[in-house]
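User: I'm putting together a teaching handout on how multi-component assemblies are represented. Below are the sequence lines for each component of a complex, exactly as they appear in our records. Could you produce the 3D structure of the whole assembly as structure tokens, so the students can see both representations side by side? Please keep the chain order the same as the input.
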Amino acid sequence: MAGAAHALNSWVHAHFGTWIVFTGLTLGGLFTLGVYSFLYRENKVSRICEHIFLGVSGALGVVVVWEQTLLPKWWKPFVGAFTGDYRPLGAFGHIIVGAMAILLGACWYFIFSRKYLWLARLVMGIVIGATSGLAFKKYFGAQFPQITSSVKLSFYAMKTDPITGRTALNLAASINNLIFIAILLSVMVYFFFSFEQRHFAIRGMSRFGRWCLMITFGAYFGNTVMARMALFIERFQFVTEKWIGRMF
Amino acid sequence: MATILPKDKRGMSFIERLQWIDRRWIYLMLVFAVALPAIWKVVFKKRMDLPVFMFPDTKGIYDTIEQAPRDKIVLVSADWGFASLGENGPQTITVCYHMLKKGVRFIFWSGDPAIPGYMQRECFDRYGRLFGRKEGVDYANLGQKVIPNRDLFAQALMDDIPGYFKEDRRGRKLADLPVMKGIKDFSNVWLFYTVGADPTYDSWIGIVQPKYKMKVGFGSTGVMVPQTYPFLESGQLCGMLSGMRGGAEYEAKMGIPGDATWGITRQSMAHLLVILFIILGNIGFFAAGGRKSQVSRLESVR
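Assistant: Of course. Below is the structure of the complete assembly, with chains in the same order as your input.
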């Protein structure tokens, strides 16, 4: 028995370095296979793995919120105001800010009370007001350049040779502009529902726009498949190379 | 909606059966396709690496880092977790490798608790030693930074970087580190490189870029790629690493073939298999008489 334990210990150290690495990789490999066993059929192993992942991530989330947010940004300044350890805003400032956080945070829970629901609405109003102001700023800043870059008034694009300084037609960029304008207009025509699309030219443009949309959705779907495949490949590489591969 | 599959396939021709293959056979063939490069390596004693070409979106990030001035800094925000390691991992490691090699100052942080340690082990320690770069002098790892609202975070960070972050992962005052010399706000930032499985660039191009005009780069998962291209076209993003492909292209450019280079060959095999299945499915569909036959088949099953 002692000989077997010694042999196992030597094997682990030779292939994985330490028991911690071996245990971590083995658990990772077993959980990966456990979750993927769902692909064969619904089973208890995949359920157990799923629930353990959910439990661990939930517990970790609570710890992270306390360690990273509540402890440094609320508890330490609040308690420090009384003990004198931490007072950049002054003792009174920290007591006021800490107490406000408790009061306003507690107001959220009045959403469960019909009588005092207005208290929860008060806090919601503050949060929605603050975030919507910032969201307006963000969308204006992010989307406005999109509109200006979409307005390509010239069908043709020019390029300048950096050595000779001569200007010539950039054929590839010009074709790209042309395709862009054609797709932009046809897709916009497709979404005109204010009048019936009777004229053959309008109908044709609308149909072309629909085809362009379908190609775009195809590209979206293709990229989604590609992303899922990449995630599977990473797990495959982990199981075959970083876990099983190290055993031999 | 549940798919209706006929239990009895007797009487079906081979072509018709192609449309009713059990999905588990498809999964098995997918595993085989992904394993094919490894089998190739064992049988032929050499790696089956397909050629990788650099796309303009990847080149945008590369060129931006190459042009980084000495007096400015790069901020790297790894907004991803281990769930998207296959795509976002190589995108973060290769770009940081490039900056360590070239000597571009940068600050790194992540919203995920595991990623700062992973990056320190897999990238900063390993390549920092290789190129003689030191933590605190050439780069700073701030560890995990919980970001409950990215818009508020961007708004708060842009005017006072050391004032907002305060400390690095070891608890050293950020403003006192040599890497932060001359760095106050986003006017000292050359590139903001964000990597994530969400559109994490939107707050930076919407709130910070209009004021400070810094460059923004994005390491994107494959799902996010189509909706991000318009921002490249408009110049709001200077470049993008698209999924595993972007990571593989950057690895090839840097000459450090890693997980993405190896993975993209496997992915190409999987794509070939998917294309083959689409062709076979369509042959079966049209050979069986197209849509009309399909509908009657489903009705007969009901």
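A couple of points students might notice: Residues 166 and 172 of chain B are 8 Å apart (CA to CA). The first strand of chain B starts at residue 73 and ends at 79.
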